[in-house]
Design a protein that fits this description.
This protein has two domains: 10-216, pyruvate-formate lyase- activating enzyme, CATH 3.80.30; 222-280, OB fold (Dihydrolipoamide Acetyltransferase, E2P). 33% of the residues lie in helices and 22% in strands. It has eight helices and ten strands. It has helices spanning 10-13, 22-34, 55-64, 84-92, 109-114, 121-134, 153-166, 193-216; strands at residues 39-43, 71-75, 99-101, 139-146, 170-175, 222-230, 236-240, 246-250, 259-267, 271-276. Helix 7 (153-166) packs parallel to helix 8. The longest helix is centred in the last third of the chain and has 24 residues, at 193-216. The mean pLDDT is 96. It binds iron/sulfur cluster (SF4).
């Protein structure tokens, strides 16, 4: 990673950004698809900074042409690298799954500056608007750090306000912890642990409520589920919705590795349960 956020060790431990050639990625994806793989996830720290020809949007379009590859995902993205062409690909390609992990870390511009994030809360919100205009049902997830050095109550409240405005399907929340050798570790204004705990609890309560609401909104819908493995109970299968939710339902093991429609009956915070739609059952 070349971004050097002031709290993060990745640029020091993993080194600079580099991009695998498109041909190597496409060849690997073709070979996986030929072996029955239905979904690929492009992985990278700032995967959307991928600098091959055509950018990540262009790569997604080429992947979408591969026979049998029904689902394409990528993670993790940086807001600064979310370009218009990649956003357009979300509108064009049904294979590009409507789930995007787009970390923002804080809703306070003071803190975002101290973090060296290179974006503001406002620019992030406008970006989310653009992405939702392209793919209205997209589910967003994010990463948040509470208690970054210098974070005041008003900064933390700006984070809560941003979370309320975006409405996340899921989120990963962390208390700031010093990483030796990073600029933030030496910054004055380190926040008291008890304050961090209290802020984390408030943020978690909000994101958990949003996650629950997002899952509850799926009740009654029929979702295509890619079945991955047997469920915990005999006769049960476990798979993923397009929004990356875990889905459980009863069904035959032959469906593992295939996509089938499931009517969602009930939602919990971490998973959905449903009933296989009859026409999905093998004859
Ligand atoms: S938080 Fe992400 S973007 Fe920032 S330096 Fe670490 S890996 Fe790079």
């Amino acid at each position: 990673c070349d971004k050097f956020c002031t709290f993060c060790v990745v640029p020091y431990t993993r080194g600079g950004e580099w991009s695998r050639p498109a041909e190597a990625i496409l060849a690997e994806a073709r070979s996986l698809a030929a072996r029955g793989v239905r979904e690929v996830t492009l992985l990278g720290q700032n995967v959307n900074a991928w600098s091959g020809e055509g950018g990540l949007g262009g790569l997604a379009r080429q992947l979408a042409r591969i026979e049998g590859l029904d689902r394409i995902r990528y993670t993790t993205s940086h807001p600064r690298d979310m370009d218009d062409d990649l956003i357009a690909a979300h509108a064009e390609l049904p294979q590009l799954m409507p789930y995007l992990h787009l970390p923002v870390q804080s809703g306070s511009d003071r803190i975002l500056k101290a973090m060296n994030r290179g974006h503001t809360a406002e620019s992030y919100l406008r970006l989310v608007e653009k992405i939702r205009a392209a793919r209205p049902d997209i589910a967003l997830s994010g990463d948040f750090i509470v208690g970054f050095p210098g974070e005041r109550e008003s900064d933390f409240e700006a984070t809560l306000a941003l979370v309320r405005e975006v409405g996340y399907a899921s989120a990963f929340t962390f208390k700031y912890s010093r990483r030796p050798g990073t600029p933030a570790a030496a910054q004055p204004g380190q926040v008291d642990e008890a304050v961090k705990d209290e802020r984390l609890a408030r943020l978690n309560a909000l994101v958990e409520a949003q996650q629950k609401a997002f899952n509850a909104a799926q009740e009654g819908r029929v979702l295509p589920v890619l079945f991955e493995k047997p469920g915990r109970h005999p006769g049960q299968l476990s798979g993923r919705s397009p929004y990356l939710q875990a889905v459980h339902c009863d069904g035959p093991a032959e469906l593992i590795g295939r996509i089938a429609p499931v009517r969602i009956d009930a939602a919990a915070r971490m998973s959905l349960s449903g009933t296989l739609v009859a026409e999905a059952l093998p004859a």
